[in-house]
Amino acid sequence: MLESFIWILLFGFFGGQIARRLKIPALVGMVLVGIFLGPQVANAISPSVLEAAGTLRTIAVMAILMKAGLGLDREKLARQGSVALRLGFLPAACEAIAVALAAMTIFQFDFLTGLMLGCIIGAESPAVIVPGMLRLKSLGWGVNKGIPDAILTGSALSDVLLLLVFSLLLTFLSQGSAAGVKLPGGLTLSALHLLPLQIIFQIVLGVVLGLLTARLLVSLLTKQNWTQNAVQDTLVAASLALLLVVAAEKLPIFSGYLAVMAIGFFAIAFDPPLARRLRSGFDSLWVVAEIVLFVLLGASIQLQVLGKILLPGLLILIIGTLIGRAIGWYLSTLGSNWNWRERLFLLPGNSAKATVQAAIGALPLASGIEGGETILAIAALSILVTAPLGAWAIPTFAPKLLERGEVDPTKVAVTRRIIILAVVDTSPLAAQVLTKAAELARRSDSEAIVLHVIRRQDSQKVALLKEKAQRLLADIRHQFITLEGSVPETIVRVAREYGVAEIVIGKRGHQAWDEVLVGSVSQAVLESSPIPVIVVEDNQFVG
After folding, report:
1. InterPro entries given for it (predicted)?
2. Strands 502-506 and 447-454, how do they pair?
3. In what helix (H) or strand (E) does residue 142 lie, and over which residues does it extend?
């Protein structure tokens, strides 16, 4: 089993990186690695790992839904709330019905079997959509109208709806229905009456449990201080979130995945600093979870059955997306302030399939339902076609179809390259400047540029200065630069060219002019630099 995880993590990581270098979504490389490592090609993954794939996928989906909840913007959702709710029901329902009707004609399915296929195909993939939408939020695309937030919320609600209907259909078609007035396909009138109530109950109870769990997290992690760092915060939050998912499987009266997403959403409102720490922790957890999810996804795909249904399967996907889902998109955004370009973005932004299809695609076949092999093949085809296409299309079409707004760093983890500029001369004060720069760089995981402006050639002293920088910044990525010119102007110019976040500079003590940066230099930089400046003097600093 250990070897299998080594292959999954190692080959999955490099498969994703190779895909990125080829300008292809990383998940494509991971899925291909999974196909190669899976039982149909190399057979390098232990059967025990494949048996545990469902559990591992559950952990990965939990991580991505927590990231989604921690990235939601309550104000934008309130502004587009009706659109988000409609996106949660109409596109999925319309696509499921369109797929059911098409399957009745193409595969001669009865309506309920076709609707089961529609529920599988219509579910949206959080593993593709959530990272894509969070990436758009971090760049500002569509944030003014809350488009990424509406898509995130809508995709979570649609999965609740379709998974519930799927589970009911699976029970009816595999085991028969309870007493009641019989309708075509074996569904009872009593079950139809209860279905809307079950859906509402699962959603409401899921949100309430998410709220209560968020309250519990705030109490444990901030008020009672049971944890000491972000890693421990993430460990507790992930464990409670998984507990909800497991409880929902044992007691299916609420949506566990919706509850997980609600935890992140309410954590932002209850304790923003805690939400920020959790966002960082789950970002790190997703690095591993993403590889495991998509490699195991590829390993579960049965290639031999794809050839039989390739063309009719593609036709089913086209009908479901371009007819059924398009009608749902139109109805969802009717009367909203979205323009036609933003509505058109729903095609690449809200169509990807992967996670749900991998989790439930094989259940009809395992339950002995007629047509189960065809259902599994179409589910696999939907993953291979729409997951990489969606992962590529979201960042590609967002700049063309959406407007760019201001990024809210309190709702997303905004990552950027942070650079500290340390300005040094050949005096003893250089050690204090380098030490301060190193301290700042370690706090923010930054890079450093060490700048020495040459006023008098002395190669031996410069070599010693470079050696000192190497020693004090040994654990920090840095580069040493020597330039000639006016000291203040050169410092400000280099800071602008490299886009540094802060400048660390020394102030003259009592040494001679040719040994240290004079006070007038630091003062000139303070007055002319648009970038924050930290001045170091005699083991003290002022900013």
Report:
1. Cation/H_exchanger_TM, CPA1_transporter, Na+/solute_symporter_sf, Rossmann-like_a/b/a_fold, Universal_stress_UspA, UspA
2. unpaired
3. none
Other C-beta atoms closer than 10 Å to the C-beta of 217 total 24
Question: Under DSSP, is residue 292 helix (H, G, I), strand (E, B) or coil?
Answer: helix
pLDDT score, position 23: 77
- What the block records as the tokens of 320 is 């479901």
In the chain, the percentage of residues whose pLDDT exceeds 70 is: 90
Three-state secondary structure call for residue 302? coil
- Structure tokens given for 340: 């036609």
Distance CA 212, CA 517 (A): 58
Q: What is the C-alpha to C-alpha distance for residues 260 and 465, in angstroms, rounded to an integer?
A: 53
Q: 542 with 533: CB under 8 angstroms?
A: no
Is the overall model pTM greater than 0.85, yes or no? no
Q: What is the pLDDT of residues 329-367, one digit of tens each?
A: 999 998 888 999 999 999 988 888 877 787 778 778 877
Residue 472: C-alpha distances to residues 118, 130, 447, 494 (Å): 61, 41, 13, 22
Residue 118 CB contacts under 8 Å (≥ 6 apart), including other chains: 95, 96, 97, 98, 99, 100, 103, 320
Q: What angle do CA 228, 233, 238 make, to 5 degrees?
A: 155
Q: Which of 142, 135, 145 is nearest to 392 (CA)?
A: 135
**Distance from C-alpha of 120 to C-alpha of 320, rounded to nearest angstrom:** 11
Q: How far is CA 388 from the centre of its chain?
A: 15
Those residues whose C-beta lies under 8 Å from the C-beta of residue 396, and which sit 6 or more positions away, are 348
What mean pLDDT do residues 257-286 have? 89
**What is the token pair recorded at 486?**
């006016």
Task: In whole angstroms, give the CA distance from residue 342 to residue 145.
Answer: 10
Task: Give the chain's largest Cα–Cα span.
Answer: 100
Amino acid at 450: V
Distance from the Cα of residue 294 to its chain's centroid:
14
Supply the mean pLDDT for the chain: 84
pLDDT at 212: 97
In angstroms, rounded to a whole number, what is the distance separating the alpha carbons of residues 479 and 466? 10
- CA-CA distance, 224 to 414, in Å (whole number)? 29
Q: What is the predicted pLDDT for the residue at 401?
A: 93
Rounded Cα distance between 468 and 254, Å, is: 61
Tens of pLDDT along 482-497? 998 888 889 999 999 9
Of 173, 147, 163, nearest to 79 (Cα)? Answer: 147
What's the rounded mean pLDDT across residues 201-213?
90
Q: Which residues pair with 422 in a beta bridge?
A: 450, 504
Give the count of beta carbons closer than 10 Å to the beta carbon of residue 184: 8
Distance, in Å, from the CA atom of 351 to the CA atom of 383, rounded to the nearest integer, reads 11
Residues constituting the chain: 543
Cα of 251 vs its chain's centroid, Å: 28
Residue 117 near residue 320, CB atoms below 8 Å: no
Candidate ranges 163-177, 348-362, 453-467; pick with highest mean pLDDT: 453-467
